[in-house]
Amino acid sequence: MKELACCYTAFVEGRSPSLPPLPIQYTDFADWQRRWLQGEVLEKQLAYWRTQLQSLPVLQLPSDRPRPAVQTYRGATYPLQISATLTQALETLSQQSGASLFMTLLAAFQTLLYRYTGQTDIAIGCPIANRHRSELEGLIGFFVNSLVLRSNLSGDPTFRTVLERVRNVALEAYKHQDLPFEKLVEALDPDRDLSRNPLFQVAFALQNAPMQPLELPGLTLTPAPLESGSTRFDLEVHLWEPAHGLRSLWQSQEGLSGFISYSTDLFDRDRIGRLIGHFQTLLEGIVANPDASLSALPLLTPAEQQQLTAWNRSPLAPLKKQPEVSLLKDLGGSRCFHHLFEAQVALAPEAIALVSEQGALTYRELNQQADQLAQTLHQMGTRPGDLVGLCVDRSADMVIGILGILKAGGAYVPLDPNYPDDRLHFMLTDTQVPLLLTQSWLVEQLPRSQATILCLDQPLPLAPSPQREQVESEGC
């Protein structure tokens, strides 16, 4: 920018520009980097990143559409503005915590992703200027490198604790910032997936480098919008600190400002707008009480809270007069519960769907187990409309049982194992269920009946698998 101003001013004044000589050229930097980044130096950098990024999980953000098999990079942007008051409060919190504003914002955004996904192992890509030598400050060229900042949000910690974790991760990453991202990917050799970027799918950047005002004789300069229609990742957050004089299109003179770039293959604009609202609400909650646990921090906007209150105060009306549920409408109308569940499986197969004492199940794993049960029920004679008893404790078996029965086309009869024996006997006799799903430790407690017993905590009977289409067609 300085060289542009110098050359333009000289042109207007009819003289040759006088530019100070550069100490080095970009080729000098490239040569230095190749010679320095080898041997023991390279191995130390690689060793850190191999340890830091071992068994890196894939972030499973809820989306509006299934992920395409091949990433298209189609995208759009949504503006983001944080008030001057909130910006000042975030800066104060950062100073009190011995962290930078970037660290605080990154910790907040990782908290938002945790609240959206339930995943406690969050990795985000963050660009770094990589101009840590004075000779590079005025040199034209692309030096930016991507750092993968991976944070542990397990244990429902306070935000202040998360900020400390993020600070430590960032400081260590800065010490190992010289390894080019492409060399890191080559060394780690992750399983390639054409549908997403390797190592991270969400990026976060805070632009805080001071920009000198650009003044050209006889001209008034204003930023112009430029919508590229593309994005490199699922989500990219770009924020600028307040600026004075010439600023970018997204930069404000009051408070943080910027935009979120998002994949239009995955997300609708309305969803990104809600995400920004949740992020701002979360930031306000953080500065109000940084010692609150992550689960206790607010997320819903005031408008959403008012809507929930209005819904709760609405009088009940006859079912036939109720409007169609929006989720059903969005997914095509009269779909059954298990169809809605399968739609969510397609949107986020690796997201956590269920957590129990036995561990966690992703949507994909839960769906597979429910499908297996549905096939077994079908092979055992369950047909559309048949009643199937379900007597289990509060566990993953309960959810698998409900989904499996619905997928097979049946209707489940809930039988609480804590009911008195007489009550359970009456329900089994009254409903005449031909099949009863339960758990092995409950079998001896159940009253005698004509129902065939199938224990969900035992391996399901092996039988030739019917075509999945046949099972699905016999559902509702």
UniProtKB/TrEMBL annotation:
Domain of life from the UniProt record: Bacteria
BP terms from Gene Ontology: amino acid activation for nonribosomal peptide biosynthetic process; enterobactin biosynthetic process; lipid biosynthetic process
Stored InterPro entries: AMP-dep_synth/lig_dom (IPR000873), CAT-like_dom_sf (IPR023213), Condensation_dom (IPR001242)
A GO molecular-function descriptor: phosphopantetheine binding
Pfam families associated with the record: AMP-binding, Condensation
Domain annotation Condensation: ranges: 1-309
AMP-dependent synthetase/ligase domain residues: 341-460
SUPFAM superfamilies in the cross-refs: Acetyl-CoA synthetase-like (SSF56801), CoA-dependent acyltransferases (SSF52777)
Gene3D superfamilies in UniProt: 3.40.50.980, Chloramphenicol acetyltransferase-like domain, Nonribosomal peptide synthetase, condensation domain
Cellular component, GO, one term: cytosol
Segments crossing the lipid bilayer: none
The protein's name in its UniProt record: Polyketide synthase modules and related proteins
